Amino acid sequence: MKISTKGRYALRVMIDLAIHDTGEYIALKDISARQNITVKYLEQIVTNLGKAGLLRSMRGNNGGHRLAKRPEEYTVGEILRSVEGSLAPVECLQRDTNDCPRAESCVTLKFWQGLDNVVNRYVDNYTLADLVDESKETFEYDYSI
Amino acid sequence: MKISTKGRYALRVMIDLAIHDTGEYIALKDISARQNITVKYLEQIVTNLGKAGLLRSMRGNNGGHRLAKRPEEYTVGEILRSVEGSLAPVECLQRDTNDCPRAESCVTLKFWQGLDNVVNRYVDNYTLADLVDESKETFEYDYSI
DNA sequence: CTTAATGCTAGTGGTTTAGTAGGAATTGTT
DNA sequence: AACAATTCCTACTAAACCACTAGCATTAAG
């Protein structure tokens, strides 16, 4: 039931972009320095975030990334899913990719569906803005993070 | 965020033992035939369940396993944890094994704790008896499973 | 044209998953 | 006492996944 580093890092990247949002594009180099994640690894993460439409990106000199919408418009769920794929606890709940032939007779299906529901309800009711607020509580006067 | 086969199989084993409970010990061979899981793999799973005190086991001829308590006294959470280890979505929440030095400054800690809470609340309020009941609904008159 | 950035594809060492395999120990039956 | 059926224990393994690293192509500004 673990979330991978990509999921955890994606959250940190989004918080970082939200806190340092100036309207300009922010280079991965800067995020890397603040978050202690290599630029190369960040590339993969922001690629996923970008493909999901969560970021606007710009190549070339002075290029970088910025949020595509306001922090309160992102759910943590969509951020996590963009890099982790489905958060479903068992594969048979990923409707699109899988159709378990035993579904009809599966005794535990209801249990797994319920678990999937509570997880998704939680992550989809938590917004990036919530994380940003908590970040500001944590570092009361220090916005350098 | 996936549960491994061991976790899924452990649930099926426990349901199987509950449904076929006669007070006698049930051999892995029988569970294997009903659940389509090899005896060898079942051995590993019941070893974990046994070490957690969830099963009573008997070696030798006519040996096998049976539940250590009534189905309503098991939570699905304790069954899953006995084979999966902690269900925490991030390692830093596994108090015993880990003490993240960044915990104080971790911006996302509160979010992860909340997720851990909803997951554990769900699985710890679901009992083996609930699964058994649902199994009986699924196979109305067919208890051969 | 140079520089600084992202975009894309591939490689890689380590860990975990999902089993398999073999034999020792235990218990009931004959 | 021997045998058969079972669990117990340790080790092994192929495949997948994770957490990166690497190299080069592409793009944009100055």
Strands, helices and their partners?
The structure is a homodimer of 145-residue chains.
Chain A: H1 5-19, H2 28-35, H3 39-51, E1 55-58, E2 64-67, H4 76-84, H5 109-124, H6 128-138
Antiparallel strand pairs in A: 1-2
Chain A binds a DNA duplex (30 and 30 nucleotides) through α3.
Observed structural traits:
Arc Repressor Mutant, subunit A, DNA-binding, 145 residues, homodimer, two-stranded antiparallel ribbon, elongated, mainly alpha, 2 strands, 6% strand, 6 helices
Provide structural commentary.
Two copies of one chain form a homodimer. Chain A is mainly alpha-helical. Chain A has a single domain (5-138), classed as Arc Repressor Mutant, subunit A, CATH 1.10.10. Chain A has six helices and two strands. Chain A has a two-stranded antiparallel sheet with strand order 1-2. In chain A, strand 1 and strand 2 (64-67) form a beta hairpin. The longest helix of chain A has 16 residues, at 109-124. The mean pLDDT of chain A is 92. Chains A and B meet through helix 1, helix 5 and helix 6 of A and helix 1, helix 5 and helix 6 of B. The structure holds a DNA duplex (30 and 30 nucleotides).
